[in-house]
Amino acid sequence: MFEDKNQEKTSLEELGEFGLIDHLTGNFKLHHKSTVKGIGDDAAVLDFADRKVLVSTDLLIEGIHFDLSYTPLQHLGYKAVMVNLSDIYAMNARATQITVSVAVSNRFPLEALEEFYSGISLACELYKIDLVGGDTTSSTTGMIISITAIGEAAKEDLVYRSGAKPNDLLVVSGDLGGAYMGLQVLKREKEVFKVNPNNQPDLTAYSYIIERQLKPEARKDIVELLMNLGIHPTSMIDISDGLSSEILHLCKNSNVGCNLYEDKIPLDPTVISACEEFNIDSSLVALSGGEDYELLFTIDQKKFPELKGNPNFTVVGHITEKNEGAHLISRNNSKIPLTAQGWNSFAKA
Ligand code: ADP
Ligand code: MG
Asked: Who has the most CB within 10 Å: 42, 192, 195, 265?
């Protein structure tokens, strides 16, 4: 990481646009019979018979969403796919296809795009996704990535943000705050590197949180697990912006309030120790940090026995009537209104 690898570089002009697309996408395999025609014509053709079709898009801009000085391109490709798949899984659906559009400056060597596509390829292999198209163009202002994910579900399996009911339990998968703390470590190391480029950092102690930042996993497994447990969430959303703002989305869309218990928020021990080191409150990191790509959902109380004791899930609170508002019940038992910018408002409280 951080070093400038001085390997051979092939300029993009050498290949030409069509050669480039063939070169980058030639080795992708197709997995789904819903893919009638993938890359190679004017448009892809998909056939979902009687299933509902889901479409979700994200745009990632260098300097805003990612920093190439500490993001290996392979990880960036992988993460860009994960961010999109996560939105499909958050509907309780199966992700099946993606399109990938990229713009890079012509100073970008072929080898860099190969690395980027190797991350996309790994994601497609592991998550059984068909790459069915995209666009390739040049940019004067850094790298731009747009991925569209397509998925499918039976109508009755779909879960929206709008179905939470009072007394439902509020549940999260996995643990929170790791991606944000991983980013803090990477930013700090970048500053250290600027001062002394020969100082290669030892980041082993932070490997979990750095991986959470650089190589997140979309929770396909959770959607499958819920299906196997016979749990149909009443509402669901993926945690891309921090627990606090996602809970508020569920509450707003479902017309309900909630109580979230600070002492229930799942934190990995590495997150807690990194927070101590950086002198940041770990609850605030989980509430406002973002990029964890875990799932937040609500279930009917009657379904509690089905997930009780399952290490993949943590019940963090419950849904209330709308007029009770959305609150965090803090460790010292005070009731604090949840806000999307949990950070500042908690500092005041
Ligand atoms: P058009 O001129 O119609 O936009 P292109 O030459 O851009 O067609 O694309 C040719 C084929 O390659 C299409 O199937 C398109 O979806 C696919 N494609 C182009 N760029 C990419 C990319 N970056 N990743 C994956 N597929 C791509
Ligand atoms: Mg095109």
From this structure: 265
The residue contributing the CA closest to ligand 1 atom 11 is 40
**Is residue 56 classed as helix, strand or coil in its secondary structure?**
strand
According to DSSP, the β-strands at 326-329 and 169-173 are: unpaired
Beta-sheet strand order (sheet of 144-153): 52-61, 144-153, 94-104, 130-138
Share of the chain above pLDDT 90, in %: 85
d(CA 137, ligand 1 centre) in Å: 10
The CB-side HSE value for 120 (13 A sphere, CA atoms) comes to 31
Render pLDDT for 99-125 as a digit per residue (tens, 0 to 9): 999 999 988 999 999 999 999 999 999
- Answer whether 199's CB lies under 8 Å from 193's CB: yes
Choose the residue to mutate in 23, 35, 39 for probing ligand 1, maximizing ligand atoms within 8 Å of C-beta.
Answer: 39
Given this model, what pLDDT does residue 344 score?
43
Same-domain check for residues 132 and 263:
no
The residue segments making up the domain with residue 55 are 12-157
Percent of the chain's residues with pLDDT above 70: 95
Domain membership of residue 284 (yes or no) is yes
